Predict the structure.
Amino acid sequence: MTDSLLTLNAGSSSIKVALFDAAAPGGGDALPSARWSGQADGLGAGLKARLRVRDAQGQTLLDEALDGGQASHQGALAALLEWHAKESGGEGEGEGGRIAAVGHRIVHGGTDFVAPVRVDAALLDALARLEPLAPLHQPHNLAGVRAAMAAFEGVPQVACFDTAFHAVQPEVNRRFALPRELHDAGVRRYGFHGLSYESIVAQFGAIAPELAQKRVIVAHLGNGASMCGMRQGRSVATTMTFSPLDGLTMGTRCGHIDAAVVLYLLRSRGMSPDDVEKLLFRESGLLGMSGVSSDMRALEASSEPAAAQAIGHFAEQVVQHMGSLAGALRGVDAIVFTGGIGENAAPLRESILEDCEWLGVHVDAAANRGGAARLSTAESPVSAWVLRTDEEAVIARHTARVLHA
């Protein structure tokens, strides 16, 4: 029976799980394919949670609503593991084979963790100390590790870090204009969504190898959103910095904000640090601006003027940061959209690309709305693309390499 790798990817409003063969990774950058993949999304207050599992051909194996306690990260993870146990005979065997390792997405690796590593108690303690920097993600990431350790006792667990992809950035792009002692203590620009960007590098390199080595801006747009400017497939600059709060407007996060606003909230509005954290991470962004929802689909369906305003603000932030990253790259040759919004919101993509015409991109409206990978005309000096991110495949590749090291 072929051994398997399980991957767990807990986001701010979702959990993704996938099963892969555990064979030793081959050479090159090709990503492995999952036997099946599952996703619980809409997790959190005011959202409609649902669990879906599909096989490698995209056929639905499970599709059900999550209610009550199952609508939380912990509940959804328990439901996914219960489904897997039933499908594999209850012992991690059966058609899926023995689980040889579990790979995890960990959002923040801090200054110490810039490559995938096996999990032990010391690592969990170190990563737990980073929870204040990523309160929407890190606790869920680590809860997933602990749940997997309990469910698959003795099975190696591998941590893969979103911040690691950006560790190669030029020093000038990793610093804040703060005293050097603070930088040395870890107050610096880390960058996030690295596993997604690594996935796009691999995929774009397969379909447009020469272009992928040039100046590429990738927009990972979802409930959490960021953008990254790359050269030769390596991160040069990104919109998220010290924590996953910075940069673009997001589902419930404010994105870039004047630091003096925080001082004002603390001093003049009498808010506590916990109150400010809740406001900026959980009550702002699309939700705060619209008063309707953090979900782009709900905003697009809404007739509320504030919903349209929130969408317009989101798009404008993407356009402005596109210009900033083009400056960091000293130009741009290609733009790639990914993430839940980037992959699915065709009208929004079209609006953004039309406002980026000054960069040299000419959108092909029919291709954009018709499901094509290339969104720009053949004559466009700067090409535009949409690719489906596959963080789970990147996690599986890293996990296999650690396992066979």
